[in-house]
Amino acid sequence: MAQISSFKQVSDVSWEIPESYKSGMRVPAKIYATRKLLEGMDAGVIEQVTNVACLPGIVRSAYAMADAHWGYGFPIGGVAAFDVEKGVISPGGIGFDINCGMRLIRTNLRFPEVKPKIKDLVDLIYRLVPAGVGVKGFVRVSDAQFDEIMKYGVKWCAENGHAWADDPAHVEEGGYIKGADPSKVSRQARSRGIDQLGTLGSGNHYLEIQVVDPARHFDTKLAKNFGIVEDDQVMVMVHCGSRGFGHQIGSDYLRVFDGAMKKYGIEVRDRELACAPFSSKEGKDYYGAMVCAANMAFTNRQIIVQKVREAFSKVFHRDAEAMDMHLIYDVCHNVAKVESHAYDGARADVLVHRKGATRSFGPGHPDIPAPYREVGQPVIIGGSMETGSYLLVGTQKAMEETFGSTAHGSGRTMSRTAAKREVRGAELQKRMMEKGIYVKAATMDGLAEEAGMAYKDISEVVETMDRAGISKKVVALRPVGNIKG
Amino acid sequence: MTYRFLPDIALADVAFEAESDTAAGLFESCAMALTDIMVDPKTLKATVDREFSLDSGDLDRLLYDFLTELIIAKDVDSLLFKEFSVKIGTGGGSLKAEAKGEPIDRERHGLRNDVKAVTMHMFGAKHEGALWRATVVLDI
Questions:
Q1: Rounded Cα gap, residues B139 and A76, in angstroms
Q2: Taking CB atoms and an 8 Å limit, are A203 and B140 in contact across chains?
Q3: Residue pair A125/A311 in contact by the 8 Å Cβ criterion
Q4: What pLDDT digit, counting tens, does each position of A288-314 carry?
Q5: Rounded mean pLDDT of A11-21?
Q6: What mean pLDDT value characterizes chain A?
Q7: Are A443 and B113 an interchain contact pair (Cβ–Cβ within 8 Å)?
Q8: pLDDT of residue A377
Q9: Per-residue confidence band for A175, with pLDDT thresholds at 50, 70 and 90
Q10: Closest CA–CA distance from residue A81 to any residue of chain B (Å)
Q11: How many domains does chain B have?
Q12: What are A370-405's pLDDT values in tens digits?
């Protein structure tokens, strides 16, 4: 549990830990949480967010969001921005699963029509989207094509029949981040990733059929901007990342940075905080490789969505276009990007690390696709497979306070082993079926590990971020079908 | 071959501690723990041989690289292993190893968690008294 007596309470949902808390802190740390969430946070979050505040070139604050929990080096639910000249880049501030993220597509179907077909639909998607240990995807690409994917992500998909024309515009950064350098990607990373396009993976990754919850349709006017016009409207959410490709790039550069810190005279409080100056050769190499993984992850989620469209089309005997299966948005929650932000009275480019944190750009930002620009960027917050998820929207306050960032999910509170002790996979599957959620899982062990009780209450996380004003609730989404990797 | 899982080290991931009276035995225990996380070893057969030859400079990095190679084999060649024979080179920075296992069979194998990566958190192999010990945290 966090020792909060030395923290300054800024509001009922935000706290500041001053630089005097720990020797070496260059900036304060800021935590978004209710008192209850803060008291429930593991002490590792406080230790880690204050360690991050010690890193060279960090500006303004190190942040932990309401879903924060212990991670490697940085807490998950952590945000930190660094001066592009004097600051560092750290793989621990991004995570091994580079550009793990969320994608939400809508349909014009209502649940009463889908309910009788939910088993057929989930079973078919399970066959079309491989999930679990060591799976390979159905899309085969050459080395040259994989280079293009690393550089152009969803733009490549649109040019090669794997996306609808308007899909790229509805992905963060327009479907690909600039600056990819495939020459900085190892042979092993390439080998791990090239056959994994269109695969869900394992762990906490999932693909979910959801319905708009009539009781929690918070802002119907905002929702309409995203094509959400009815209660019980059916949505599809995808949570996954860059698979073995990103994991290997993370592993490769963790080793590189472990050595580079001596070279640059950087000392850190935790080996997992390994970092290098962003302007150094090692920093630039990692950024070039990391962007390749981010663009591969966008592509992975895109190919999965094409399979979802195919499955709906087969089950409901209609074109996916006729079912209005457009992408609402795709957001990263494990990434570092150069962004322009106003802080400390000036505007500058900074390298924003978001690890288990989502971009939350407010109304009017030029990086938001034109149809949403007036209302703000969609923010997709994924919950556990039992408790549901939320669509929110970015705010001007997030631009002013958190480098345009908010939370990403509900955050674990129970270990995988403890969750398996509490419930067996088959029992959980039955319990979920009774709640009206049809689940197909690659493994029963894996299913038990992702039980809702192993996570924080997502509603409290979302409520906290809404009250803090750094993202605004639009609608809650209730799961009715789930594929668990 | 001895290892035990440590449930309270990393909530979202899996940690284990392994020990052996030799450095080579320690590597074999760690490899077996890795397999145990991904699949029920009892459901695996030893029908395929794979040789590994690594030179990493020191024992810590060698263990990191060896486990990473096994993860790569799972993703690239769909191979999971159940028997390991490791020989550590003079100085402890290199190894030659043979692993026996088989390609993933979703019908027959009791598959568990996909391992993403070996982390540096608490990572290390050390010689304590008569035993070699290692702590490993894997990202799931």
A1: 13
A2: yes
A3: yes
A4: 999 999 999 999 999 999 999 999 999
A5: 97
A6: 94
A7: yes
A8: 98
A9: very high
A10: 23
A11: 1
A12: 999 999 999 999 988 788 999 999 999 999 999 999
Full pLDDT tens readout for chain B, 140 residues: 699 998 877 777 889 999 999 999 999 999 999 999 999 999 999 999 999 999 999 999 999 999 999 999 999 999 999 999 999 999 999 999 999 999 999 889 999 989 999 998 889 999 999 999 999 999 98
Phi and psi for A57 in degrees, rounded to 5? 80, 5
Write the pLDDT tens digit of every residue in A340-349. 999 999 999 9
Cross-chain residue pair B12–A133, CB shorter than 8 Å: no
Using 50, 70 and 90 to split pLDDT, how confident is the model at A1? Answer: low
Q: Of the candidates A76, A243, A443, which has its C-beta nearest B111's C-beta? A: A443
Nearest residue in B to A205, CA atom: B140
Residue A189 in any domain: the answer is no
CA distance A343 to A357: 19
**Which residues, numbered 357 to 396 in chain A, qualify as contacts with chain B under a Cβ-Cβ cut-off of 8 Å?**
none
Q: A90 and chain B: CB distance < 8 Å anywhere? A: no
Closest Cα in chain A, distance from residue B65 (Å)? 9
Number of domains in chain A: 1
Tell me if A319 is assigned to some domain: no
Interface pTM, i.e. ipTM: 0.86
Residues on chain B touching A410 (C-beta within 8 angstroms)? none
Partner residue facing B11 (CB), from A70, A96, A443? A70
What CATH number is given to the structural domain containing B65?
3.55.10.10
The answer to whether position A76 is within a domain reads: yes
- The domain of B54 spans 2-139
Please say if A408 is a catalytic residue.
yes
The alpha carbon of residue B50 is apart from the nearest alpha carbon of chain A, in Å, by 16
Measured CA distances, A194 to A202, A246, B21, B76 (Å): 17, 11, 40, 9
Q: Nearest-CA residue of chain A relative to B14?
A: A416
Using the Cβ of A417 and the Cβ atoms of chain B, whether some distance falls under 8 Å is answered with: yes
Contacts with A220 (C-beta within 8 Å, 6 or more apart), sequence order: none
Q: For residue A405, is it within any domain?
A: no
SS3 assignment for A443-469: CHHHHHHCCHHHECCHHHHHHHHHHHC
Is B72's CB within 8 Å of A416's CB? no
Residue A158 has pLDDT above 90, yes or no: yes
* A69 contacts B113? CB cut-off 8 A: no
Parent domain of A53:
8-83+338-359
